[in-house]
Amino acid sequence: MAESAGDEFISIKDLNIGNVEIKIAGRVSDNYFKNAENQVHDNIFLACAAGHTLAGPGVVVDVGANIGVTTSLLAKIRNKDDIYAIEPSPNTFIDLTRTIALNGLGNVKASNIGLGAKPGRLILKEDPSNSSAANFLDDASPDEGDPRSVIVQTLDDFCSAHDIRPHFLKIDVEGFELNVLRGGFQIIKECSPILFIELNTFTMLAYGRVNPLDMIDFLANNFSQILWLDGNNIECMSDQSSITNFLGAHYSRHSGIDDLLCVPRGASINMDALKSDIKRLRHQAPSANAHLGAVLDSTTWKIAKNIQRLAKPLKGIQRLAGPFKGRSDRPT
Length: 332
Description:
Rossmann fold
């Protein structure tokens, strides 16, 4: 079903992610929306992480909510939690609010802002054909009245303004992840939330101008475990050797895109149960290869097929980066 909204046609889809039924609204011209079924496989890790890491009611912050796939998933799995969905794109935010309404998510509060290392305004560059490909131009100061300019807050300020202490953070912001983390250092230190974050080498280098190892170093300094999936196996980055193993898989088998589950000190996860659920639910879901094909069809992502060429220089950078530092109480 599609309906007109101004110059755009809006459609609705039903998705099943890890046996959680959700509805999403999106523009028929949006490749992310058109290929939403092919993303089910990847979101199972998030679904299982959210289900296995929080014991009771809490606060979940979805940074980079897009049209609401992950927000709806988190809100239904954590239906006693308060969910805060953050999406900077005005157009995509409209679809997010439609999706929230479609699913009757009374526990979700949505904010049309961006998060970064410092407050202000930034230019948001959008791809009209793909809502998941918007990225901030961190090196450009917006002119007054620039329609691409959006409000940016820090995660620390956002949590303070809403008087919340997050228990679970999900961050997927097209290469701007480290900026969000740096702007949320105090709340991360004080609240010790579970963190589910995307590490995308291409977007971090091309858009964020960030060495991905800097983000790994930040995570190592502020979380006790950094978990990732290799097939259906859960692996852990805990020292320099395990980082090297991760980078090898990241470039050679995962096309430079991985989700990381970061566990703070004092938290525990039943790894056997988590692994079992991931394996069972992924077996029922569409193939990951279908998702990769959909991603590479996007104009923004066509260059990603060459991502493995970055592996050798980054391994050289890793050797210069020194030993894995482990957790500390300082930002990096």
